[in-house]
Amino acid sequence: MSPADLVMQSYGRCCASPTFFDDFYRSFLDSSPQIRAKFAETDMPAQKLLLRQGILNLVMYARGMSDSKLRALGESHSRGRLDIRPELYDLWLDALLLTVSGHDKQFNESIRSAWREVLNKGISVIKAGY
Ligand code: HEM
Asked: Which of 27, 57, 62, 120 is the most core-located residue (most Cβ within 10 A)?
């Protein structure tokens, strides 16, 4: 199975787990005061729904979809708008992998490296917009 297919299936199992997005944001917000500050005014239930689609866009990009959705995210997260510094994506990725490992009952090392590969590809498009 391709890395993108492994991730798609793993993500399906995560989305079926009721607290996946709550646990992700708990871990991500706990990873740095800088990150917590960025979400101080955010409607978190709405943000969780937006991220559900955002992760899907990263996976679809790895499966060959155009980069236009990710370039739009690059623009919203850029210096002049949300101002998300590129190094913060490392914390995002660590929090996500930690959460996936706790929710995907079939999680193993090849699934972990598939997630890293698939997400890094799309994250570089977003970071390039900074
Ligand atoms: C908003 C996805 C990384 C902070 C959003 C939105 C999406 C999204 C879909 C809402 C739509 C938009 O504003 O364009 C993602 C994805 C990421 C990522 C897929 C990783 C690849 C980050 C990181 C931070 C961050 C590393 C660092 C703190 C924010 C903030 C908002 C936001 C502050 C606005 C929240 C609000 O409306 O108050 N993100 N994001 N994001 N993101 Fe991200």
From this structure: 62
